[in-house]
Amino acid sequence: MPEFHTPPIMPMAIRFDHEQLTLAPAGPTLTRRMSDLEGLFRDEAARAAAAAGENPVVYTVTSSPVPEANRELPQSITTIMPGTTSGEFWMTKGHQHPDHQGEIYLAITGRGGILMFDGEQTSWLEMLPGTIGYIPPGWAHRSVNTGTEPYAFLAVYPGGAGHDYDWVVEHGMGKRAFRGPDGSALLRPFAE
Ligand code: S6P
Ligand code: ZN
């Protein structure tokens, strides 16, 4: 066994329930409501009104006990509810990993997409159950529910990479995903 500055956790089996959308044993769970998403939708007034009203849950993130620590590979299931705010699909906050490392998502149920931005280019990956979306190092990423059912995916990511949410607030994501006339995703320039 090599010497580590912070000793890794012990090997463990984690039960992935793709119907209940749970990991067992479970680690921390996070709930993001409309009130947590200030300044992220194009129509901030509509977002603020929804936050002041019913303040719906937009997404949850449930994790396994594998810690966000250097060299570990934590996992989480994100479930985004279906919905739009002034036509813009409900989505995660989005972040950049300050210590640039890759990450994978496996779509479990529903229909969605990954919007990625490297500061210049935007990339959009359609995510259907069974799709593995690869997020290379250096690409900020945001998940979007483009369907009419909850969209859920499993994420596996480097535990020491960190999460920078301000980067997305500062730089945007290049594009935004709106519901098009036929119901599918229509990408429009971020600042349009
Ligand atoms: C972690 C990974 C996901 C997201 C989750 C919520 O690196 O990308 O688990 O944390 O989908 O998104 P966000 O942008 O609110 O962290
Ligand atoms: Zn990430």
Automatic annotation (TrEMBL):
Pathway it works in: Carbohydrate degradation; glycolysis; D-glyceraldehyde 3-phosphate and glycerone phosphate from D-glucose: step 2/4
What Enzyme Commission number(s) apply to this enzyme?
5.3.1.9
* GO-annotated molecular function: isomerase activity
Q: What class of enzyme is it?
A: isomerase
Alphabetical keyword list: Gluconeogenesis, Glycolysis, Isomerase, Metal-binding
Q: What region holds the Glucose-6-phosphate isomerase prokaryote domain? A: 32-174
Reaction(s) this enzyme catalyzes, per UniProt? alpha-D-glucose 6-phosphate = beta-D-fructose 6-phosphate
Specify one Pfam family: GPI
- Keyword Isomerase, does the record have it? yes
- Cited CDD domains: cupin_PGI (cd02218)
**Which family is this protein grouped under?**
Belongs to the archaeal-type GPI family.
Recorded protein name is: glucose-6-phosphate isomerase
Please give the organism.
Leucobacter albus
